[in-house]
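We were asked to recover a plausible sequence for a given structure. The inputs and outputs are reproduced exactly as logged, with field labels preserved.

PROBLEM: sequence recovery
POSITIONS: 221
GIVEN STRUCTURE:
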């Protein structure tokens, strides 16, 4: 959501593919199914930008109710012009000349239909850049891993400080046309997990937006 909002603010058209009937992914679940979510300094500055109220619970740690944080981020993305396709399942990538140029998607409920009617053909959606922000599933990156085009390392054990720092640093293009953000970065590069704190997720999204804009400008030259 953070990445899409940032890209849309740069006047690019943005479409989010979401297989659930709700938005926000794990951000809306908090840690241990508890309502509050946390970020570490300086991620509270992004909350300031979005008008999300929070309180300081210890040095460098900030807390806010999950519904407020998620709803504000969704609203900000919508206000920036981001479009959403809910209940839409990612199936595969489109590739041309060694570059990812789109995604293949289908209606999510198709996967729950009886086998004799699950041959509903997917459709193709072309794009200049694809961002895999699908979390631990890393659905787009894994399609390239299956084909031997990208190396996959899998997530390492928890180390919050290191995990948060490295996920932002490693956010970027993993294959021409495909950018990994958030926990997809952690899984792809074998980084430490950071648990239920979301500052690096916000900054990873922001960095993904900046990289996406730069890559699109390169294509337009």
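RECOVERED SEQUENCE:
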């Amino acid at each position: 959501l953070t990445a899409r909002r940032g890209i849309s603010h740069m006047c690019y058209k943005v479409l989010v593919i979401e297989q659930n009937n709700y938005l926000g992914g794990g951000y809306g679940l908090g840690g241990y199914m508890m309502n509050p979510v946390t970020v570490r300094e300086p991620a509270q500055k992004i909350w300031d930008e979005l008008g999300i109220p929070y309180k300081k619970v210890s040095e460098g740690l900030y807390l806010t109710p999950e519904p407020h944080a998620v709803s504000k981020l969704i609203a900000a993305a919508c206000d920036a012009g981001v479009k959403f396709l809910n209940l839409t399942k990612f199936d595969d990538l489109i590739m041309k000349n060694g570059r990812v140029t789109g995604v293949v998607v289908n209606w999510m409920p198709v996967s729950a239909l009886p086998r004799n009617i699950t041959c509903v053909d997917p459709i193709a959606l072309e794009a200049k850049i694809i961002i895999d922000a699908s979390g631990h599933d890393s659905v787009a990156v894994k399609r390239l891993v299956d084909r031997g085009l990208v190396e996959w390392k899998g997530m390492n054990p928890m180390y919050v400080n290191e995990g948060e720092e490295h996920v932002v640093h490693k956010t970027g293009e993993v294959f021409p046309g495909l950018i990994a953000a958030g926990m997809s970065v952690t899984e792809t590069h074998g980084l430490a997990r950071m648990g239920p704190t979301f500052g690096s997720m916000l900054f990873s999204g922001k960095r993904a937006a900046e990289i996406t804009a730069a890559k699109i400008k390169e294509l337009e030259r």
